[in-house]
Backbone:
């Protein structure tokens, strides 16, 4: 691809995104809920697009296409199981939203700390999120570096790509907090869904239409249309990969925090349904890319090259190829900026506020704003170092964050859950997941995420039963949610 | 959970369960587009429908 074209497209994207970020600066941003939650007044449309952009990182169009290239249709199933898991928003969404408004929660870990009546619950939950999500962001940055380096034949060096991405993520989260994030996210996801769909239509046409496309796969590699197929997706691998992702919508704070933000439940409904439609299209697009690459370039050494090869091929006009390439860069940035913002709110709200005595709302916001660049620099440094440990923590991130799930379910549905139960289950299970990932990723043939959910559930239940639950709070909290949800049902 | 959530929640669970079981049993030898690809696509569309129905009553009260 021509370097000038790549630079020009990046420049145009940056200018448009920054203008949009500045235009988004309405409303107050001088409070924690203003800056980090958009005053809980986000409408359904931008919420849906931004939720999609945050969820679908560069992983989709590069990683999922690569997984399809390697393992066939199982990659589609993997993503569809994740997709089905987003239905958890239909159950947990209104509950997060109700208690968020009533008790003024800004972060999911703050909610846990208050519900279990122990500030250390919030501290532990916040820290465990940081441990997994900072390396995850670092790997996203690394991905951008390689992508730009690859498609321009080293004309844009690795470090330059990483620096561009870090600065953009920082700027988008800084200009107006969550508002600039959701608006630039929306730009990115709209751009991507349109251009990547056009690319798919062009490629499939080039391969002889839909029937020609499937006929080529059936002819070249029929195994790719079934699981376990070539064995890449054997059942236990599939289960181990999908279980942590199934719970993604409540385990990952950068998306569960979104449940506090919609202006009304109707807006949340639009967010959920909009995301599902977007997600299904995007998933099919990514998988078709992977299959197309396997037809056109059957002998790639590295499956992650499937997407760059496809975009540089004759089937895609160069300008469109470059736009999608910059769109993929933007997809990684839209994931990182949301994570930056969420992690800084976790730090200021759950760590700083609980350790420092007179930390009022203003001070928390000031600390949060200082922490955003610190986390960005940390992610940048991690991306530069390319340490093995960082890669391990990033791979472990979906499995590692799953350990919070029993505590979140308990928050709304189990009055006997206790602070000790949460602290022990989250900290011990996180360590177990990291150890399994550091020693090859399997224990007795099962992936770390399965052990994570198993250990955290057992520990949460046993320790909770052995300790005293905060009965008054549990009654108030769960009673309130129950009452409200019952009224909602009556109205229909 | 209210009754409506329990009913639809159960249906979601069944759909997810089918998404694991059918491709690895009945469809593991069907190497055509109408095998696992079609099944997972249909289940995904069913999930959208269920979410549509389950959240139908969500109002615009702020």
Residues:
């Amino acid at each position: 691809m021509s370097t000038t074209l790549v630079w020009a497209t990046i420049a145009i994207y940056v200018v448009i995104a920054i203008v949009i970020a500045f235009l988004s600066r309405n409303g107050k941003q001088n409070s924690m809920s203003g800056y980090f939650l958009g005053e809980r007044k986000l409408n359904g449309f931008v919420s849906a697009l931004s939720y999609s952009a945050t969820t679908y990182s560069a992983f989709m169009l590069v990683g999922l296409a690569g997984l399809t290239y390697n393992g066939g249709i199982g990659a589609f199933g993997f993503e569809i199981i994740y997709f089905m898991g987003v239905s958890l928003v239909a159950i947990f969404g209104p509950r997060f939203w109700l208690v968020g408004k009533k008790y003024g929660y800004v972060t999911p870990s703050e909610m846990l700390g208050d519900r279990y009546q122990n500030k250390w619950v919030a501290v532990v939950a916040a820290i465990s999120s940081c441990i997994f999500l900072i390396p995850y962001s670092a790997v996203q940055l690394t991905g951008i570096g390689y992508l730009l380096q690859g498609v321009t034949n080293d004309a844009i060096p690795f470090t330059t790509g990483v620096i561009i991405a870090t600065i953009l993520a920082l700027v988008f989260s800084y200009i107006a907090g969550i508002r600039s994030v959701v608006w630039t996210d929306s730009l990115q996801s709209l751009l991507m869904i349109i251009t990547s769909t056009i690319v798919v239509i062009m490629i499939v046409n080039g391969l002889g239409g839909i029937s020609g496309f499937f006929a080529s796969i059936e002819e070249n590699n029929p195994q790719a249309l079934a699981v376990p197929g070539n064995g890449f997706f054997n059942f236990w691998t599939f289960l181990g990969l999908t279980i942590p992702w199934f719970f993604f919508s409540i385990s990952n704070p950068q998306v569960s925090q979104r449940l506090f933000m919609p202006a009304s439940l109707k807006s949340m409904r639009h967010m959920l349904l909009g995301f599902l439609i977007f997600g299904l299209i995007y998933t099919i697009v990514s998988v078709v890319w992977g299959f197309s690459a396997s037809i056109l370039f059957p002998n790639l050494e590295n499956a992650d090259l499937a997407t760059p090869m496809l975009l540089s091929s004759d089937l895609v006009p160069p300008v469109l190829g470059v736009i999608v390439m910059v769109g993929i860069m933007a997809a990684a940035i839209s994931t990182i900026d949301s994570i930056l913002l969420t992690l800084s709110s976790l730090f200021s709200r759950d760590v700083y506020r609980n350790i420092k005595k007179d930390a009022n709302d203003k001070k928390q916001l000031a600390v949060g704003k200082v922490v955003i660049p610190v986390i960005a620099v940390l992610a940048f440094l991690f991306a530069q170092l390319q340490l093995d440990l960082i890669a391990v923590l990033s791979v472990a991130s979906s499995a590692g964050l799953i350990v919070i799930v029993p505590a979140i379910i308990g928050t709304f549905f189990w009055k006997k859950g206790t602070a000790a139960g949460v602290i022990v289950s989250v900290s011990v299970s996180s360590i177990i997941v990291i150890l399994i990932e550091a020693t090859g990723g399997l224990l007795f043939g099962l992936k770390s995420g399965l052990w994570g959910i198993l250990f955290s559930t057992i520990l949460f239940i046993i320790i909770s039963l052995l300790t005293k639950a905060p009965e008054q709070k549990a009654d108030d909290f769960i009673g309130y949610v129950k009452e409200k949800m019952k009224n909602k049902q009556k109205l229909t | 959970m209210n009754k409506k959530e329990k009913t639809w929640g159960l249906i979601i669970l069944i759909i997810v369960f089918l998404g694991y079981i059918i491709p690895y049993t009945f469809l593991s030898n069907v190497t055509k587009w109408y095998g696992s690809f079609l099944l997972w696509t249909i289940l995904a569309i069913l999930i959208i429908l269920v979410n549509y129905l389950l959240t139908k009553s969500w109002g615009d009260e702020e």
Q: What stands out?
A: Chain B has one domain: 3-54. Residues 3-54 of chain B form one domain.
